Amino acid sequence: MTTGATVDRALASAPETAGCAASSERAGEPLAGTAPAARRLVAVEHVGAWPRAVADHADPDVAQLFARLRGEGVVLLLIRRTGRAGRTTSDTGRTVFVADLAPGASRVVRRTVRGTSDLARIPTSVDGGEPVTDPVLLVCAHGRRDVCCAVHGRALAADLADADADVWECTHLGGHRFAPTGLVLPTGYAYGRLDTGTGLAALKAAAGGGVDPWSCRGHVGLSPAAQVAELAVRGHTGIGDAGALVVDPAAGPGPVAVAHRDGRVWTVDVRPDDGVAPRPPSCGAQLEPVVPLAAGRVTGS
Description:
Strand order of the largest sheet: 5-4-3-1-2-7-6-8-9-10
CATH superfamily: Glutaredoxin
CATH class: Alpha Beta
Low-confidence stretches: 1-15
Helix content: 10-25%
Protein name: Sucrase ferredoxin
CATH topology: Glutaredoxin
Pfam families: Suc_Fer-like
């Protein structure tokens, strides 16, 4: 387990070339197709300590919410503001985001609870609540899951907050080796290897209902192969509109059809890439071989 002292030492002394994130980048592991599966999620503001696994939270209200949501196929994230503000309970209540991140038709609402005792009554429906239209970035800063997320995620969140972005630290998003990682609401696109510039660019694109393909891992409501195909078409055509493309379900490698709402259609040859060097899946882990999916030829419109 990563302790607070370990994280503090890492923050003070870890070089940019250390950790699983740097190893993954050196190995040439691609970002496309690595977005976590999180079609439906609830993100709850929680200012206390975060255990390694949210399911094991010492607060029974949080643990019970996790169990309820898991039974409904909903992901639970804990969130907090960066810095000192993220360790203080607000007198006006705690923020809760409820999201249905259907590709091209995502809906996110904001609710407020007085404390964790109210969580049992949090609905998972996006009917009701305040619609979220301005972009929000959740940045993984879950140090007890991985040191890279603490070192790089916390620093990024602080920089973006200083730039007046609407940013929250959050628990494990998946893919520590791509730290800093983030999830943009309400569009539902995940990003990796972010810095201040690319983080702001992702938020700017989302403010206009779009996607910034730079540093994008894919949409959390799509399969890995569909993520790869969609991003390949965006790169091939320059289409930025988050709701413009519909991707055929794709369980694995092969031709994947991507259609535009104006009738244009492309086919992307998605195939395994065996040219990526082994990398550790997280800090402290052994090197593991990886065969990610990659986009080949894009044909059609």
